Amino acid sequence: MSLSWLHVSILLFFISGALFAIAPFIASMLIATRAKSPALYTPYECGMDPYGSAWTKFGINYYFYALLFLAFDVDVLFLFPVATAYADGAGLVPFIKLLIFIVILLASVIFFWKKGVFTWPKRIRF
């Protein structure tokens, strides 16, 4: 098997890719400071000194509402590209497909509403 310029260029490409991947790690080991202060091990609190323990219990309701918002927000974001893709379609088929998607989204909202997901508790108990 003969070694052509194509093989050499592919080999040089892989070597340069590996160097580009490894060089930042080596540079950070050589350049980075070695001083370890206790401030490095404290949690970051938006530039303020942390207050209290990091093991405080939080109510899951806040995170649950955020996840629900993201889930429905992403579903609604799917409507824009679908609506633009179906704008060129002829007939009722694209409209029916989009209507089915909206009905499924509405059914999930009704399902979560009936389960009591959207009711905010008066007091959060731990």
UniProtKB/TrEMBL annotation:
Substrates-to-products reaction catalysed: a quinone + NADH + 5 H(+)(in) = a quinol + NAD(+) + 4 H(+)(out)
Function as written in the Swiss-Prot or TrEMBL entry: NDH-1 shuttles electrons from NADH, via FMN and iron-sulfur (Fe-S) centers, to quinones in the respiratory chain.
Transmembrane segments: 6-32, 62-86, 92-113
PANTHER family: NADH-UBIQUINONE OXIDOREDUCTASE CHAIN 3
Family: Belongs to the complex I subunit 3 family.
Organism of derivation: Desulfonatronum thiosulfatophilum
Compartments where found: Cell membrane; Membrane
Keywords associated with the record: Membrane, NAD, Quinone, Transmembrane, Transmembrane helix, Transport
Predominant subcellular localization, coarse grouping: membrane
EC number annotated for this UniProt entry: 7.1.1.-
Lineage: Bacteria, Pseudomonadati, Thermodesulfobacteriota, Desulfovibrionia, Desulfovibrionales
One Gene Ontology CC term in the entry: plasma membrane
Statement: the UniProt record of this protein carries the keyword Ligase: no
Topology relative to the membrane: Multi-pass membrane protein
Enzyme class label: translocase
Superkingdom as given in the UniProt entry: Bacteria
GO molecular function terms listed in the Swiss-Prot or TrEMBL record: NADH dehydrogenase (ubiquinone) activity; quinone binding
Stored InterPro entries: NADH_UbQ/plastoQ_OxRdtase_su3, NDAH_ubi_oxred_su3_sf
The protein's name in its UniProt record: NADH-quinone oxidoreductase subunit
